[in-house]
Amino acid sequence: MKKKQVLVACGAGIATSTVVNGAIEDMAKEHGLDVDLKQIKISEVGSYEDTADLLVTTAMTKKEFPFPVINARSFLTGIGTEETKKQILEELQK
């Protein structure tokens, strides 16, 4: 299975994406998945359109991307985090 490039983006590319980044790292380790995590600002996503496999974001985006986009706002609220993790894991295992 090829290494998946996962973009983790929030509005500023700092606080919330760090939390999400950590959660994805833990999941990848736990399930033996090879991921290349890129922690970026939502405004930078476009420059990864040709290489990324997945976008996990806590920011709002209306733009269409050629890869799945998972809304990770649950990481901010603490509500529905397990469901979000499940979605991320399913994409990583494809």
Automatic annotation (TrEMBL):
Keywords on record: Transferase
CDD domains according to UniProt: PTS_IIB_galactitol (cd05566)
One of the GO biological process terms: phosphoenolpyruvate-dependent sugar phosphotransferase system
Domain PTS EIIB type-2: 4-94
Molecular function GO terms recorded: protein-N(PI)-phosphohistidine-sugar phosphotransferase activity
InterPro entries: PTS_EIIB-like_sf (IPR036095), PTS_EIIB_2 (IPR013011), PTS_EIIB_2/3 (IPR003501)
Keyword Transferase assigned: yes
UniProt name for this protein: PTS system, galactitol-specific IIB component
Native species: Lentibacillus halodurans
